[in-house]
Amino acid sequence: MLLLGDGAAGFSLMDADTLVRHRLPVVIVCGNNGAWGLEKHPMRAVYGYDVLADLQPGCRYDEVVRALGGAGELVTSPAEIAPALRRALAANVPYLVNVVTDPEIAYPRSTTGV
Amino acid sequence: MFTLSGGHVFPLYDAAVKGGQPLRLVDVRHEQTAVFAAEATARLTRAPGLAVVTAGPGVTNSVSAVTTAWQNGVPLVLLAGRAPDYRWGAGSLQEIDHPPLLAPVTKRAWTEHEAAKVAGSVDEAFRLAMTPHRGPVFLDISLEAIYGQAEADLPAADVPAPFTAPPAAEDISRIAALLRAARRPVLVLGSDVWLGGAEEEARRAAEELGLPVIANGQARGVLPGGQRHVSRDRSGCSRRRRWSSGTGAISSRSQASTSSPDVPGGGWTRDRTAAWAPGWATRSQPGWPARPRRSCCCSATARPASR
Domain of B202? Predict the structure, then answer.
């Protein structure tokens, strides 16, 4: 099982094709807040605004995996998560559970990383 | 500015948003795309491209595209964030020493550590990128310097001249002498003809000298279709010719230093051709299978009109 954000999906989601070609039924859970969360909120904290931190809200990365030969679905409420994961685990193909989350929720962190 | 967001470079975004001159910001999904896009704008506009990436993976993700710009001799500046100096070596977020990674594929790769010198270093990066032979330049700025405040004299806001100074008269004389002595000369035009703003002159030279032309890279289109282009069997043509002029065609870094005064013709020889078109030389090496000999496409029209 792979957990990633929507930003990270931009770097490597094409390799869902690799999973399909090698018949690897990986369950991919994409936390999709439509933003670079680790940039959006820190930039607001420093400058009072943010720029260059937004991605497409609700972008259908699950449809990308479907187009590549896998499957997936969009999840927009917490109650849908568990049934979606069950379907993903039973799918026997690469399956992306696209969980839309709230971009206004800041990633909880206690350090700046530097 | 092509970029992918990162906290190490926020001050550059803030400056782009609040600066006196609006700067169009284009955020991409992979740093490689940012650098490819910067290269493309440079090729199209002949002004240096700009990409901004964050420390660590932002830089390493850029390397393939920077290498492409290096091989193509395209002017661009890649600015990057960098982990802080005050605890360098402790493994800060995305800490890695970038310039050694970029040095082999840039005209210069260095780090600015002082806020007061950032503006001067950025200016230097753009000037260096635009100075022939053009190419990518890398500058990373430590966290203290990029977030720091300092009093500094800003460089003049002039745009680096996109076109080069006229060539030295003795070089022209030498080329003319070689051309007069050459039995079957061919004119090779490469991307620098366009990037250097020499397309009109190149076209006039080709027409007045009546030379067959090999147009490569962005020199394609310098001559209108139907003119005496040599577009096929270039290896055959090069084998039959005594020398070729690499006017602007030199696009890989190795040639910048291949001009040797000890070589007859000052480096305008097969040796020099080999540097930017290694395939030509390889195919003519003894022991390598020769390509099927075809009639030279330029043989009918290649002879200079008058000599």
Answer: 185-307
Chain B hits for A11, CB-CB cut-off 8 Å, are 29-30, 61
Distance, in angstroms, between A62 CA and closest chain B CA? 17
Element (H, E) at B17: helix B10-18
Residue B171 lies in a domain: no
Tell me the torsion sign for CA atoms B144, B147, B150, B154.
positive
**Separation of alpha carbons B168 and B282, rounded Å:** 33
Q: What DSSP designation does B164 have?
A: P
DSSP state letters, A82-100: HHHHHHHHHS-S-EEEEEE
DSSP 8-class letter at B220? T
pLDDT digits (tens, 9 = 90+) for A26-63: 999 999 999 999 999 999 999 999 999 999 999 999 99
Can you tell me the ipTM of this complex?
A: 0.91
Identify which has the larger pLDDT, B220 or B12: B12
Tell me the CA distances in angstroms from B217 to A34, B112, B206, B222, one per residue in order.
Answer: 40, 34, 17, 10
Q: If we measure between CA atoms, which residue out of B68, B106, B105, B101 comes closest to residue B82?
A: B101
Mean pLDDT for chain B? 79
Task: Sort strands B136-142 and B109-112 into parallel, antiparallel or unpaired.
Answer: parallel
Read off the CATH number of the domain in which B58 is found. 3.40.50.970
Contacts of B7 in chain A (CB under 8 A): 38-39, 42-43, 112-113
- Measured CA to CA, the distance from residue A53 to residue A38 in angstroms comes to 9
Tell how strand A95-100 and strand A27-32 pair up.
parallel
- pLDDT computed for residue B235 by the predictor: 53
